[in-house]
Amino acid sequence: MFDEKQIRQILRSISVLVAQALAMLDDLRPPRLVWNADEVAENVKSFDTHDKVIDLRDFRNVNSEANCIFEFSAEEVSKMPKEFRNFFRYGGKNHRIRKKENGVYEIRFMYKGLVISASSKNLEQAKKKFIEKCHAVSGGNTLRVADRKTLKEFALFWLKNVKKPRVCEGTVQDYEISLRVHIFPVFGERNLVSIKPTEIEAFLGSYISKSQMRTSVKLYGILSQLFKAAQNDRIIPASPMASIQRPTYEADEVVPLTRNEEKYLIETLFRVEHPCRYAIVFLLYTGMRRSELKDATTDGTWITTFSAKVRKGKTPKKRRIPISPMLRPYMDHFSAENLSFTADRLSRVVPKFLPNHTTHHLRHTFITRAVEFGIPEYLIKLWVGHSKDRRNVTGSVYTHFSDEFQLAQIEKIKY
Fold first, then answer.
1. In angstroms, what CA-CA distances link 394 with 234, 385, 398?
2. Is 283 exposed, middle or buried, given 0-12, 13-18 or 19+ CB atoms closer than 10 A?
C-alpha cells in the first residue's frame, strides 16, 4: 500500500506526462492557451486524493485570460541558446508565459538554481527580454539576471560607490561629464548584457574618425572599468571590452608660450576685463594646476596649496611656492573671488585667445621660465609638485631646502 505522500508524488509524475501529451496533441489543432505541467501538478495537490477521482483534462483549459499561460512560437524557441530549447519545446510548443491580472506578461524560469525573470506589458517585448537573458546565462554562467540594470543605472551606482571614495573630486567630475555627454546618449538605456563589442568599436571609431583621439582613449578607459566591474558582480558573463584594442595616439608636443604670446594674453585679458584674468596670471606665475588654484592661500611671501595628484585615503600633499617678482604686482587681487573658478571654465580661457595653446600650457611656461633663469631642476619639481626621484639622494631630500635659499632663487625670474 502507498501512503498519501507517495500517492501525491505518483499523481504529480502522471500529470506531467499527461500535460506533455496534451501539448503534443495541440499541434493538430489551432493554437490556444493551455496549462503547463507545473500548473497541472499544483492544482492536483489541492485535491483530497482519498475522496475525489481526478480527471486531469479538467485542468487543460481556463476561462480567464488573466490566469492563462501563453506560448513561445517555434521560431522564438529556435532563437534561444541550445541548452534552453528542450525546456520550452513540447512538440514545438511551450507553456511558460503568464499574463497577470495587472496586464503584465511575466516569464519565470529556474535554470541551475538561478531564477531567470522577464516581464513587460507588451508580450513580444517580454519574450525578447527573456531570450536575451537566456543567452546571458548560456554556458553555465551564474549571473544575477533578476536584478540586471541598464548601463546608466549600473554606471551611476559604480561611480558613486566604487570610484568616488577612491579618487579625487576632479576625477569624479571628469567621469561624470564623459558619461553624461558621450556614453549615456548612446548606451545609457541599454541592458549591459545586450551591448556587443562591435557596437563599442563603432562608438569609439566615431571619435577616432573625427581625430578626437584623447576622447576615444578616455572613453575606452571608462568603459573598460565599468564592464569589468559588471563582470566581477556577475551581471554579465564577460566584458565586451576584452576583444577591443585600446586606441592609441601620439600626444601633442607641449609648447610653452613665448614671451610675446605671454604678454599678448595678459594684456588682452585685462583690456577686455575677463572675469578669469587674475586666475590666469596666478596659474602662469606659479605653475599650479587648474584644480589647485581654488584651495590656494597666501601670507604675502608664499602661496600654499595642496597637490591635486593625491588619491583618496592618502594625506594631501601641501606645497609652498615663493612669490616671484612677476607675480608680486598682482597679489592685491589674490582673493577667493578671483580664484574660485572651475577647472573646466579655466580650460576654455587660453584657447579662446591663443588657439594653439591650452590653459595647461601655462604650467609648462612657468617651468620653462624657471629653467631659463637657472633655477635648479629639483627646486622646480618641489614648487610645481612633481614626484620625487627616489633613485638618488638629491631626489629624496630636495624638500628640505631652506626658505632663504628658495626665496633667493625665485628672485631670478624677472623679465
1. 49, 16, 6
2. buried
CA angle 394, 400, 406 (to 5 degrees): 100
Q: In angstroms, rounded to a whole number, what is the distance separating the alpha carbons of residues 241 and 239?
A: 5
Cite the DSSP H helix spans in 184-315.
Answer: 184-187, 197-208, 213-232, 259-271, 277-284
Note the pLDDT of residue 21: 63
> Nearest 5 degrees, angle CA 320-CA 322-CA 323?
130
Q: What domains are there in the chain, each with its CATH number?
A: 4-147 (no CATH), 151-243 (1.10.150.130), 259-410 (1.10.443.10)
Residue 174 DSSP code: H
How far separated are the first and last CA of the chain, in Å rounded?
Answer: 110
R_g (Cα) of the chain, nearest Å: 34
How far from 255 is each of 260, 367, 385, 387, CA to CA, in Å? Answer: 14, 11, 20, 21
Grid coordinates representing 257? 608660450
Q: What is the band of 131 on the pLDDT scale with cuts at 50, 70, 90?
A: confident
Paired strand residues for 90: 93
Please tell me the total number of residues recorded for the chain in this structure: 415
55-102 per-position pLDDT tens digit: 333 333 333 444 455 677 888 888 888 877 877 765 444 555 778 888
DSSP letters for 41-97 = HHHHHTS-TTT----GGGGS--S-GGG-EE---HHHHHTS-HHHHHHH-BTTB---E
